[in-house]
Structures are given as C-alpha cells and as structure tokens.
Write a structure and sequence with these properties.
265 residues, 51% helix, Immunoglobulin-like
C-alpha cells in the first residue's frame, strides 16, 4: 500500500525530471531500495518519457517550446470533456511526461540563448581584433617612417637649415634637411600652426642676390599629417628657404606679408 501511494503521488516523475530537492531525492532512493515495484515503475516512466520525447523531437528549435505548450493545452481540453471517476496512474505519466519534455525544451532554449550570446561575444572579439590589427599596421608604418627619417637626418651629406619665425608669427619655426646629391629635402614644419580654412603653406627656394624665389610646392594635407614632415624635390641651387601662407592652390610669387619662416643655407 505504501508503494502504491508513492507511485500514484507523482513524486517518481518529478524524481526522474530532476525537480526534487536533495533531501527528497534521498527519500525516493531509499524507497527504490525497499520496494522493487517502485524501481519497475520508474523504468516504465522513463520508457514513457523516452517515447514521448521521441515523438515531439524538435525539428525547429525556435518553435519547440511553443509546440509543447500547445500540446499541453490540447491535452487539458480533451481531459476536461471526460468525467473523471478516479485518478489514473497513466494520467500522471502523461502529464509528468510533458513536464519532463518542458524541462528538456527549456534546457534547449537556454542553450540556444547561451549560444547566441557566445556568438555575439565572438563577433565583438573579432571586431576588436580587426581594429587592433589596423592600429598595429598603422603603428608599424609610422615606426618604419620614423626610422627612415632618422636615417636621413644622420646622413653625412645632409645640410640642415633652421627656419626662424617672422613678424607675422614670431613663434613659428621649421627645419629643412637637404640632400644635394638626391636633390630632395625633408621639411619639418612641426612649429607651424594649422593654416586657416581656404589657406595653404607654400615653400620657396630663394636666391639672395638678386632675390629670386622659386616655388617648391604647397603643403597639402597639413592638418592630416601627424608627423608634420614633408618630402619635397629641390633641384635648385638654393641659398635660403622660406614658407608663406597663400590662398588654396598656391601663388606664383610669395606674399611677403604672410612670411612665416625664413632661413639661409
């Protein structure tokens, strides 16, 4: 009688579904040892759940949980049409079987959510990795350029010409590194302010007697150039260099009122 009472109580189904506390699990385990018929009933329940879950195995995990709820509601509607005379052991198996299926479905849904979160984290990590690689490439490029400039400055054939600030902006300064052999100069204009909108710096090679300026070009991209170092061709026999502020596109002759720096070789 005690064994039948426990069988019909539904506790065995909850035991199989893992829904009992640790203490309740221990109690059921002792009942299994004491009553072989309870062990047989558990085997029958597990078999029923196995058959049940195989019939409702999800083809589409996104609707699995919804499908289970619909089936449970239908089962309740069907049972409401019949006048219950007594509680059936198999009814308990049916409902607790669905409860077990719900547990399985919930686990699947949690797994899918965790998988989606993991995929999102992986995507974020990959994006951060791409940004890091871009920054690393930029850093390596800047490092290579700095090494190149250092080699130029240390070249024994380099002529260094400092350019001093003039009346329009006394705080300005620049420096020319001129290699006559390669007919090129490296111009460091770190000491110049950003040009106003619509204006551009223009570099001049000067002959002093008589004064004859020759344009070496304008410094396009001044603001974007972080190093503020420009490479310029100079085939002239220069005696001095100057930098003026000119309208965008440059001028045919220097605007002396906008002479920012000047220095003699």
């Amino acid at each position: 009688m005690a064994a039948n009472k426990h069988i019909e109580s539904g506790i065995l189904e909850l035991y199989i579904a893992g829904a009992l506390s640790e203490k309740e699990n221990e109690q059921v385990y002792r009942l299994i040892i004491e009553h072989p018929e309870i062990l047989e009933e558990i085997k029958e329940i597990e078999k029923s759940i196995s058959i049940l879950t195989s019939h409702v195995a999800p083809k589409n995990t996104k609707t699995f949980f919804k499908d289970i709820l619909i089936k449970i509601l239908q089962e309740k509607e069907d049972s409401a049409k019949v006048i219950a005379i007594r509680t059936s052991k198999r009814n308990w198996i049916t409902y607790t079987g669905w409860a077990a299926a719900l547990v399985v479905g919930s686990t699947l849904i949690l797994s899918l959510n965790k998988n989606a979160n993991l995929q999102g984290q992986i995507k974020s990590i990959n994006e951060a990795k791409e940004q890091f690689e871009i920054q690393l490439d930029k850093t390596n490029s800047n490092l290579a350029e700095n090494k190149k400039l250092l080699a130029v400055i240390r070249n024994k054939d380099i002529i260094t010409v400092p350019l001093q600030g003039q009346n329009v902006y006394p705080e300005a300064y620049a420096k020319v590194y001129w290699n006559k052999n390669t007919k090129s100069i490296y111009l460091d204009v770190q000491g110049l302010p950003d040009p106003p909108e619509g204006k551009v710096y223009q570099v001049w090679s000067l002959k002093l007697n008589p004064l004859s300026p020759t344009s070496l070009g304008v410094l396009d991209g001044f603001v974007a150039n972080e190093n503020k170092i420009f490479t310029i061709n100079n085939p002239n026999d220069s005696q001095a260099f100057g930098i003026t502020l000119e309208p965008a596109g440059g001028s045919e002759s220097p605007t002396l009122e906008q002479l920012y720096t000047l220095g003699a070789v």
